[in-house]
């Protein structure tokens, strides 16, 4: 199932598209699955569920706080609700409701944010979610999943429905490079070692996993053996895999499409500080981005394989 | 020792006598805790008592009964009135009421499902309970169950924008298995509601949002009984009861006194209050 270091980037469906398809599939299997959306069904892709199960899709209008709290009520009455909107809206406008009605009493609500990161493109920073890994991870009892591609997203949605407790799934707008075979299996809280390596470890999540694979291929050509870890579960974090990476490769680069000061990188650094301190370089966003095509933005804001390669060189110099 | 049984009644005099007992609990609990919100607990006593002893379908022996009516104390700071009712019904231990707000107590400062699983929701951050109640009402509709959901709101609480998101949603979705009650005691933490952010014309606002509105004296038990029946009989739209109440009701020196929104009675005041509630 794992892809070799010679990774060839091939685009698959967007992770939001995978979410929408998986949700409709689940809807067919379990009548307790219900969905809330805030006037974005055609963007979050809950539209597939809405078409098949209109009576179980609650269109809340542009009122995310109300949607999240209605979701909590549905869960408290025994349903398995998924509420969805752009990450930028559901996690910010719904945060306080998630805190008191969901996280603290451990209520069985699933939150799926779409249009995460800067790769949404032209709509610009007001719609780009670059803070929500921090927000979701701040909530006790929440499991936080950031899938890399279609297969990983489908697994995440299914896992969330079967798990009792709050879950946040981070998905994106653009077509996502295929990383996994469609039958790939995952374990919650366990990183996937996509490429073995001994000199350095690239730790990536979401859309950045494909860039990490490209970087590892380029580094191999230069004689540098880079391990690639896909952190699909950001919380709970696979501290063992990170400790092993630090012990066995001695240096790490973390790459994420999120603010660098509050996302996966800081959680990795915390884990390593506890278990096995090692030099780490962090790639992420320093601040808010701008409008542009997704590719232009990822280039301009340094979220590409060559940026990872540069960071690897920097971190190797610190070994 | 928990006695999971209670004597329900429709008799207003009997309900009034339970109200007095609930008020005594509120005074002694907050007095023992030396903190808490007695004023807004006392204003809601008739509402909560009428619901638990007459109106609501529930059974302390079967707290997880799927067809039980749901009650959400959206104004979570009035926890003492709910704790007193749950204890008097036999859901939770009466003898522990005076551990309110103390370390390790199930009677947390605001209602907390982790400590009292029979609570329908954890509340305390204002503005959220109506939406959660709507979620429960939607679940009832999907499951074809006929339980009703009651949500008690504070007057200051409905300054929160989410209340009006929820109000708009409930009427648009024709949710008629929910009943909101506004404990309109006219006082919030910083003072009189009308001097902070006036709600008037309140009934018109709810009507404009598509709700069936019933206005009454929130201490008049027969009026409450009639109103809950009218709410249940209202089809195709949600119902709200605007209950005009007196903050601190039943204790002369607490009535209409903003001080007692969030200040507990002193031991001397507890003694005086209990005399009045004898």
Q: Can you describe what's shown?
A:
The complex is a heterodimer of chains A (about 325) and B (about 280). With about 325 residues, chain A is an alpha/beta fold. Chain A has two domains: about 10-175, Thiamin diphosphate (ThDP)-binding fold, Pyr/PP domains (Rossmann fold, 3-Layer(aba) Sandwich), CATH 3.40.50.970; about 190-315, Rossmann fold (3-Layer(aba) Sandwich). Helix content of chain A is about 40%, strand content about 20%. In chain A, the strands form three sheets. In chain A, strands 3-2-4-5-7-6-12 form a seven-stranded mixed sheet, with helices on both faces. A five-stranded mixed sheet of chain A has the order 9-11-10-13-14, sandwiched between helices. Chain A has a two-stranded antiparallel ribbon with strand order 1-8. The radius of gyration of chain A is 19 Å and the shape is globular. Chain B is an alpha/beta fold and about 280 residues long. Chain B has one domain: 3-Layer(aba) Sandwich (Rossmann fold). Helix content of chain B is about 40%, strand content about 10%. Chain B is built from ten helices and seven strands. Chain B has helices at about 10-35, 40, 45-55, 80-90, 130-140, 160-170, 195, 200-210, 220-235, 265-275, and strands at about 70-75, 150-155, 180-185, 185-190, 190, 210-215, 240-245. In chain B, the strands form two sheets. Chain B has a five-stranded parallel sheet with strand order 1-2-3-7-6, sandwiched between helices. In chain B, strands 4-5 form a two-stranded antiparallel ribbon. In chain B, helix 1 crosses helix 4 and helix 3 (about 45-55) crosses helix 9. Chain B starts with 11 loop residues before the first helix and ends with a helix. The mean pLDDT of chain B is about 95. Classes of the chains: A alpha/beta (about 325), B alpha/beta (about 280). The interface of A and B includes residues 74, 77, 97 and 100 of A.
Largest sheet of chain A: 7 strands, mixed
Helix/strand structural class of chain A: alpha/beta
What structural class do the secondary elements of chain B suggest? alpha/beta
Instruction: Note the gap between the termini of chain A.
Output: 32 Å
The tally of beta strands of chain B, per DSSP, is 7
* Arithmetic mean of pLDDT of chain A: 97
Task: Encode the helix/strand succession of chain A as letters.
Answer: EHEHHEHEHHEHEHEEEEHEEHEHEHH
Strands of chain A, total number: 14
Give the uncertain stretches of chain B in residue-range form. none
Rg of Cα set of chain B: 17 Å
């Amino acid at each position: 199932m794992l892809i070799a270091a010679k990774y060839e980037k091939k685009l698959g469906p967007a992770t939001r598209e995978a979410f929408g398809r998986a949700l409709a599939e689940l809807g067919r299997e379990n009548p307790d699955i219900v969905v809330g959306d805030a006037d974005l069904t055609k963007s979050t892709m809950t539209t597939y569920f809405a078409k098949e199960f209109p009576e179980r899709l609650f269109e809340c209008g542009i009122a995310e706080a109300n949607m999240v709290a209605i979701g909590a009520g549905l869960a408290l009455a025994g349903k398995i609700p998924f509420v969805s909107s752009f990450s930028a809206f559901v996690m910010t406008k719904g945060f306080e409701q998630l805190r008191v009605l969901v996280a603290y009493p451990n209520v069985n609500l699933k939150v799926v944010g779409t249009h995460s990161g800067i790769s949404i493109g032209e709509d610009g920073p007001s719609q780009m979610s670059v803070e929500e890994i921090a927000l979701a991870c701040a909530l006790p009892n929440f499991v936080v999943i950031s899938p890399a591609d279609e297969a990983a997203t489908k697994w995440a949605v299914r896992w969330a429905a079967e798990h009792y407790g709050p879950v946040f799934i981070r998905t994106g707008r653009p077509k996502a490079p295929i990383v996994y075979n469609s039958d790939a299996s995952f374990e919650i809280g366990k990183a996937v070692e996509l490429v073995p390596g001994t000199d350095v470890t690239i730790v990536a999540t979401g859309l950045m996993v494909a860039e990490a694979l490209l970087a590892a291929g380029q580094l191999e050509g230069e004689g540098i053996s880079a391990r690639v870890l896909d952190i699909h579960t950001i919380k709970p974090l696979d501290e063992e895999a990170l400790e092993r990476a630090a012990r066995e490769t001695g240096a790490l680069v973390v790459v994420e499409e999120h603010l660098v000061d509050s996302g996966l990188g800081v959680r990795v650094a915390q884990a390593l500080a506890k278990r096995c301190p090692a030099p780490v370089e962090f790639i992420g966003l320093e601040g808010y981005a701008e409008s542009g095509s997704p590719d232009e933005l990822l280039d301009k804001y340094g979220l590409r394989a060559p940026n990872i390669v540069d960071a690897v060189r920097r971190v190797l110099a610190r070994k | 020792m928990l006695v999971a049984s209670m004597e329900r009644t429709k008799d207003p005099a009997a309900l009034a006598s339970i109200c007095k007992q609930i008020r005594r609990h509120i005074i002694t609990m907050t007095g023992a805790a030396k903190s808490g919100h007695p004023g807004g607990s006392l204003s809601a006593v008739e509402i909560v008592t009428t619901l638990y002893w007459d109106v609501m379908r529930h059974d302390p022996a079967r707290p997880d009964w799927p067809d039980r009516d749901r009650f959400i104390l959206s104004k979570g700071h009035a926890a003492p009135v709910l704790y007193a009712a749950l204890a008097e019904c036999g859901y939770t231990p009466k003898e522990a009421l005076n551990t309110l707000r103390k370390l390790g107590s199930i009677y947390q400062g605001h209602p907390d499902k982790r400590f009292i699983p029979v609570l329908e929701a954890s509340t305390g951050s204002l503005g959220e309970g109506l939406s959660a109640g709507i979620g429960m009402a939607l679940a009832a509709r999907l499951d074809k169950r006929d339980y009703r959901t009651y949500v008690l709101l504070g007057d200051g609480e409905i300054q929160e924008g989410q209340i009006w998101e929820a109000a708009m949603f409930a009427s648009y979705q024709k949710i008629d298995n929910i009943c909101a009650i506004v404990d309109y005691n006219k006082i919030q933490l910083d003072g009189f509601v009308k001097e902070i952010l006036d709600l008037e014309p309140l009934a018109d606002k709810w009507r404009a949002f598509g709700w069936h509105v019933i206005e009454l004296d929130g201490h008049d038990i027969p009026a409450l009984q009639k109103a809950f029946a009218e709410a249940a009989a209202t089809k195709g739209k949600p119902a709200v009861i605007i209950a005009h109440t007196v903050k601190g009701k039943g204790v002369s020196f607490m009535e209409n006194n903003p001080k007692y929104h969030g200040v507990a009675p002193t031991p001397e005041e507890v003694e005086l209050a209990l005399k009045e509630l004898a």
